[in-house]
Amino acid sequence: MVDGSSAPVLDAKTKLYDHSFFHHYVNDSIVDHRSRGASLAIVVCTLQGLHLINEALGYPSGDMLLNHIALIIACNCRAEDLVARTGGRQFAICLGNSSTREADVLCHRLTTALDTSKNPVLRSDQATLQIDFGTSPLMTGDDASSMIHRASSRTWLQPLSRAS
Questions:
Q1: Cα–Cα distance, 29 to 52 (Å, whole number)
Q2: What is the residue-wise DSSP string for 25-38?
Q3: In the chain, which end has fewer C-beta atoms inside a 10 angstrom radius, N or C?
């Protein structure tokens, strides 16, 4: 579905797609889904407290946590979804043929997967990590930027438990 103008570029730390490729992919998806009358949704996940983990436990621990979270997100998405690291502490997912309700279900599934994770950084008494989830459906006049902005501004905060 991606036209030849934007070759996939991977984020160096997580090996997920990067911000630029995600924008191109979402814009191409919007055109495709509109032409078919299909639904499209975006999920944005923002980590809160990553800088505190970096300060308390060191950047290698923060990087390990980023990779762990990237893997959990990717493993809980469908093969046809596109997962990207769109910022230092932000991930985004493009969900084709999905409603906002399906995007919300994914957010809850990700929360459960992260809560039950055995990652030692998440279990540390020095780690206080929360994750913001935001979703946005495709609306009239949308482009990638407007969908991502709307998802980023309509978030709910989900503290991650320390249960082992």
A1: 36
A2: HHHHHHHHHHHHT-
A3: C
SS3 of residue 113 by DSSP = helix
**Cα three-residue angle 55-90-23, rounded to 5 degrees:** 150
Q: Encode pLDDT of 101-154 as tens digits.
A: 999 999 999 999 988 888 777 766 666 788 899 999 999 999 999 999 999 987
Closest Cα to residue 2, out of 65, 75, 80, 104? 80
In a 13 Å sphere around the CA of 145, the CA atoms on its Cβ side amount to 0
Residues 6+ positions from 152 with CB-CB distance below 8 Å: 44, 46, 90, 134
